[in-house]
Design brief:
Blueprint lengths: L1 H10 L2 E6 L1 H9 L13 E3 L6 H13 L3 E7 H6 L1 H6 L6 E5 L12 H10 L3
Length: 123
């Protein structure tokens, strides 16, 4: 695992974000944003007009890209595409659910935390 982390750091892998506009803005101000030569970004700002199909397509695109190491997704957005998130079982990119300004974080819905509980045998 340490070798994998070292390789990711050497390759300069990205963090992808799927969240509300304010959260995206915060990550962009922190320097996380990237647009590659194909005009593909590593973020999706979700609002009330964003379709579930668009969110799921972006999530699947991020999981297929070899330059993304972590996908951070607001938990309320993750709930909209829960089957796609639970279907993703590869360790890279890791999927981390984060709280949003509109909804509190619920650890019982977090797919990564559920997997950890299964591995360690606690409920």
């Amino acid at each position: 695992m340490a070798a994998l982390a070292a390789q990711m750091a050497q390759d300069g892998l990205l963090l992808a974000v799927i969240a509300d506009e304010d959260t995206i803005t915060g990550f962009l101000l922190a320097g996380v944003g990237n647009i590659d030569t194909r005009k593909k970004s590593n973020y999706l700002a979700v609002d009330s007009k964003t379709s579930v199909r668009t969110i799921e397509a972006s999530f699947k695109e991020f999981t297929m890209r070899d330059d993304i190491a972590v996908i951070m997704i607001s938990q309320n957005v993750a709930n909209l595409i829960r089957p796609a998130i639970e279907h993703h079982i590869k360790p890279i990119p890791a999927v981390l659910e984060i709280p949003s300004k509109d909804a509190p974080y619920d650890p019982n819905q977090d797919s990564l935390l559920k997997r950890v509980r299964i591995i360690f045998g606690s409920s």
